[in-house]
Amino acid sequence: MRKLIYHVAVTVDGFIARKNGSVDGFLMKGDHVDAYLEHLKEYDTVVMGRRTYEAGYDFGLRPGDIAYPNMKHFVVSKTLSFTQRHADLNIVGENAIEVIRSLKDTQGSSIYLCGGGSLAGSLLRSGMIDELLLKVNPVVFGEGIRLFDGVDTAVGLTPLNTTSYESGVVLNRYSIAIEKDSPVPGSDFR
Ligand SMILES: NC(=O)c1ccc[n+]([C@@H]2O[C@H](COP(=O)([O-])OP(=O)(O)OC[C@H]3O[C@@H](n4cnc5c(N)ncnc54)[C@H](OP(=O)(O)O)[C@@H]3O)[C@@H](O)[C@H]2O)c1
């Protein structure tokens, strides 16, 4: 089975974006970026929520296009539609969790869960995320979009490794200690 890896930049206080969706404050240059670009080559598939896809517009993404070359895209949304879209852009409207569960059963690399916090929260509650790769940036936002939305129970993590970059970013890899197909108590997966 393919792993689903939530690979994301996060503040020291656990936010992936500011309240207004801005990612100003994360370090966009440095040796951690080079490492991230190398990491991306390991994924052939990316999964993201609709607001994460739309956040790409601020960085030059054209509606209906793909954000990452050479990856199949699965954007979870009940509202998004395009008259024309790239052949590698799939919109998952209904039964998103089940579609992603099925995707994990297909052949391919580990799957890149790009974000955001809403989708990641649903997937964590459903016991679907296998690993976290957290690019912890040396910044505090105080408020914003949480790493996982809607998760109010403790989830055990197993630290796998840590890499410190000269830029100040620390990359922490964890596996998630949830039995496969055994959702977190209190989950309301959709
Ligand atoms: N720091 C980083 O590395 C990083 C990475 C990624 C994103 N971000 C930031 O995170 C922000 C977006 O995160 P977010 O939490 O607001 O939104 P999100 O998770 O990207 O998208 C939420 C939307 O996705 C759909 N969705 C999510 N879970 C679903 C489910 N279980 N079933 C069906 N549909 C589901 C819904 O779309 P519909 O309403 O269309 O149905 C929902 O409104 C952006 O500001 C982005 O810049 C940061």
From TrEMBL:
<dbReference type="GO" id="GO:0009231">
    <property type="term" value="P:riboflavin biosynthetic process"/>
</dbReference>
<dbReference type="Pfam" id="PF01872">
    <property type="entry name" value="RibD_C"/>
</dbReference>
<dbReference type="InterPro" id="IPR002734">
    <property type="entry name" value="RibDG_C"/>
</dbReference>
<dbReference type="InterPro" id="IPR024072">
    <property type="entry name" value="DHFR-like_dom_sf"/>
</dbReference>
<dbReference type="InterPro" id="IPR050765">
    <property type="entry name" value="Riboflavin_Biosynth_HTPR"/>
</dbReference>
<protein>
    <submittedName>
        <fullName>Bifunctional deaminase-reductase domain protein</fullName>
    </submittedName>
</protein>
<dbReference type="GO" id="GO:0008703">
    <property type="term" value="F:5-amino-6-(5-phosphoribosylamino)uracil reductase activity"/>
</dbReference>
<feature type="domain" description="Bacterial bifunctional deaminase-reductase C-terminal">
    <location>
        <begin position="2"/>
        <end position="171"/>
    </location>
</feature>
